[in-house]
Structure formats: C-alpha cells, structure tokens
Amino acid sequence: MNGFYAIRKLLEAETKLSRTTSEGHYRSKRYPLRQEHAESKKYPDRIFNKSPNHYYDLANPIQASSNLAYICNQFIHSYVFVFSTDAKGQLDGIFLSSDRDRKTHCNYISLKEVSRIFKIVGEDYPTDALLVRNGDGDWKVLM
C-alpha cells in the first residue's frame, strides 16, 4: 500500500514519471458484485470479514486494463484488501476494491503485475518536460 501511495505522489508531481509509465495500462481482473447483493444493496462494509467470493462472482472474471492512477487509488482507498494464494499456499495476488468501486466490482491484481509495475516505475527516469505558466502563474505540464 505504501508503495502505491509513493507512486501516486510521483504521478501527482506530473514530471517525475514519463507519460509512457503514467498513461500505460496494467493488467488486472475484475469480478462483478453478485446479483443477490446488488438487489439487496448489501455491500462490503468497514468490517469486511468475509471472503471476496461472498460478495463477488469469482467464477466470472473480466480481463481489465487500468491506468496507474486507478490502480494506486484501489490500494490507497481499499475497502476490500485480501491476499490471494495459489494451490500451494503461496501468495499470488491481491483482491481489492476501493470505497467507490466496492458496490459494483472487486479487482484482482497478480503479484507478478505488482512487481512489474514497481520495476517500470523504478526504472523510469524522465529526461525532459515541457511546462508553461498559466494565467494564475502556476506551471502546466504539456509533455
């Protein structure tokens, strides 16, 4: 979670990451809220103590591609945050859903994709940027 908070701070600085990294898309899976919970308006709440399978349809994943800001916000604002393990009991990913998304879907991001994101961000050293001052005297990043 702290790593994604740090990435979001780099994104907000606008010149600390290249556009290739910040606007790139990263793989995840999305699981819809189960129909019975949508109809009864029973969503994960602050005391989320059930398996993601209780609320979300884990049998029907949707392949998703999200930008870096969205992924960071899922971690930072997570209502659902559950580690996932493979058949051998090894950590393989994380189920998460932000306070905004919890009523519609849950995301799953593999540990492999998390590692890939940190590698891309860690190796990103922008060498130039184009900035202009706006009417308020603040800098606006053009590129």
Can you offer a commentary on this structure?
Strands 2-1-5-4-3 form a five-stranded antiparallel sheet. A two-stranded antiparallel ribbon has the order 6-7. It has helices at 2-13, 19-22, 35-40, 52-55, 68-76, 111-122; strands at residues 25-32, 62-67, 78-85, 91-98, 105-110, 131-133, 139-141. 21% of the residues are buried. The protein has 143 residues and is α+β, with helices and mostly antiparallel strands. Helix 1 crosses helix 5. The two termini are 28 Å apart. The mean pLDDT is 90. It is globular. A hairpin with a 6-residue loop joins strand 4 (91-98) and strand 5. It contains six helices and seven strands, in the order H-H-E-H-H-E-H-E-E-E-H-E-E.
Give structural attributes.
143 residues; alpha+beta; five-stranded antiparallel beta sheet; two-stranded antiparallel ribbon; 7 strands; 33% helix
Short description:
By secondary structure, the chain is α+β, with helices and mostly antiparallel strands.
Q: In angstroms, what is the radius of gyration?
A: 18 Å
> Helical residue percent?
25-40%
Q: In order across it, which strands form the biggest sheet?
A: 2-1-5-4-3
Secondary structure: number of strands? 7
Topology:
Elements: H1 2-13, H2 19-22, E1 25-32, H3 35-40, H4 52-55, E2 62-67, H5 68-76, E3 78-85, E4 91-98, E5 105-110, H6 111-122, E6 131-133, E7 139-141
Antiparallel strand pairs: 1-2, 1-5, 3-4, 4-5, 6-7
Helix pairs in contact: 1-5
